[in-house]
Write a structure and sequence with these properties.
Elements: H1 2-24, H2 26-52, H3 58-81, H4 85-105, H5 111-136, H6 140-167, E1 171-173, E2 177-181, H7 182-203, H8 208-236, H9 251-271
Antiparallel strand pairs: 1-2
Helix pairs in contact: 1-2, 2-3, 2-5, 2-8, 3-4, 3-5, 4-5, 5-9, 6-7, 6-8, 7-8, 8-9
């Protein structure tokens, strides 16, 4: 019972912090995104160290962190001065070459694996967080979209848990997540679809059919993100990515779905012509 209370309280604080920073927008959200990126990257580097048997040299890990924060720092510059994506692509290319070249000087561990994991980590964590920050810092319309996205992610988790614990019989992916069931998966998706269509009906945001499509995309991406992080943890032989949030694990354990849902949301917005 104590663990349930601790989990509920820490989860409430986590949700309240995100909602508050999204509503405040601007540099409040950017600060939270930077915090999540730093903590998530540190946990990711810890997982990579477990996978390869040894941590990459600290200068290379520092380079990964600098590139991650650099992506987030680029967001307000792009909004204030106009987006120059050619410069961003050039910086990413130089970073990737530098990171891969660092493998040549690495004398311990699996140099190539560490280099590829480092580059992947930037795109896995920092890029979605930068993309989300770009949206939130745009203004009210995108802030509302971000809130909708977060709510659907949480509703998918809640629906999957409730349907899974009451009706779950058939395992979704027992190798990676023994507690997930197909009944929970469909229940979470149904919860998302019903709520999204209701919001579209009340607010007239987009046609209800498009709302249902978006809800399905969120549910799929959220589940894939969760399973992908489970794959990393299982391969690394750890239960949680960290221990920062009581009852929930680390930051990466909480934003794993978000990291897949953000690109899915960007694709959806382009499909419906909202960006």
């Amino acid at each position: 019972m104590k663990n349930v209370i601790v989990r509920a309280l820490s989860g409430t604080v986590y949700v309240a912090l995100i909602v508050a920073c999204v509503l405040l927008g601007g540099y409040w959200w950017l600060a939270l995104a930077c915090l999540f990126t730093v903590l998530g990257t540190l946990e990711y580097q810890h997982l990579v160290a477990h996978l390869s048997g040894t941590a990459a040299p600290w200068p290379l890990r520092a380079l990964d962190m600098a590139m991650s924060l650099g992506l987030l720092a680029y967001v307000p510059v792009a909004l204030e001065c106009g987006a120059d994506f050619h410069a961003l692509i050039l910086v990413l290319a130089v970073y990737s070459l530098a990171r891969l070249s660092g493998a040549l000087a690495q004398k311990q561990g699996n140099a190539l694996q560490d280099a590829l994991a480092g580059v992947f980590g930037v795109f896995y964590i920092a890029f979605p967080m930068a993309l989300l920050s770009w949206g939130v810092m745009q203004g009210q319309g995108y802030m509302n979209m971000a809130l909708m996205m977060f709510c659907l992610i949480w509703l998918n988790d809640t629906g999957a848990f409730c349907f899974g614990i009451t009706l779950g019989k058939h395992r979704l992916c027992e190798r990676l997540s023994p507690k997930k069931s197909w009944e929970g998966f469909w229940g979470g998706m149904l919860t998302c679809v019903v709520v999204a269509m209701a919001v579209c009906y009340v607010t007239g945001w987009i046609p209800m059919l498009w709302g249902a499509v978006y809800a399905v995309m969120v549910s799929l991406a959220s589940t894939w993100g969760d399973l992908f992080e489970s794959l990393m943890k299982r391969t690394a032989g750890v239960k949680d990515a960290g221990h920062l949030i009581p009852g929930h694990g680390g930051i990466l354990d909480r934003i794993d779905s978000l990291l897949f849902v953000v690109p899915a949301t960007a694709i959806f917005l382009m499909l419906v012509g909202l960006v």
